[in-house]
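[job 4471] stage=fold_predict status=RUNNING
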Amino acid sequence: MKTKILRLISGGHKLVLKASDGSCLIAKEFSRSDVVHDLALYGINKPGVATKDTLIMVYEIIRHSKFMNIFKALPGEWNQKWLTQNQVIDFCRTLAEWLKQDSGSTFFLIKIDENQPVDENKPEYNLAVIRVRNFSHGLSFHVYRLEDDILWDGDDHRHVISPKLKAVV
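[job 4471] inference complete, writing structure tokens
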């Protein structure tokens, strides 16, 4: 029996990120030295790709899990689960009420190089995790490797943001 890791919390809400040109980068928009250094260290400082309007789903983590299992639990293939840096920024600005509040964590899966494909057998080669924490004084960003061995507590109900997959007709 497969244990459920995530619970959808945005069901019944239509959350949409508007089309973007991919020009906004987290390091430029949120220029704290630690996040700029981390993004550069991981190679996540290149211009992104343009996107169309994108429906978004918000989940909460309900079982102690590591990143690889958390994001594997999302529907779809690895190449369908990530958002661009531009979309992460837009989410934080336009759908901020869906960020975990009171310094809680919200996780986004992003590509290290948005112009390169994701290897479905080795997704960690081109995917990383952005952790956004929502403090009273502003947002804090941290970068993690998808394969990092951190066990995230399911009791904290951290949020996970993902594109909504189109239904197959």
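[job 4471] summary: The chain has one domain: 6-163.
[job 4471] exit 0
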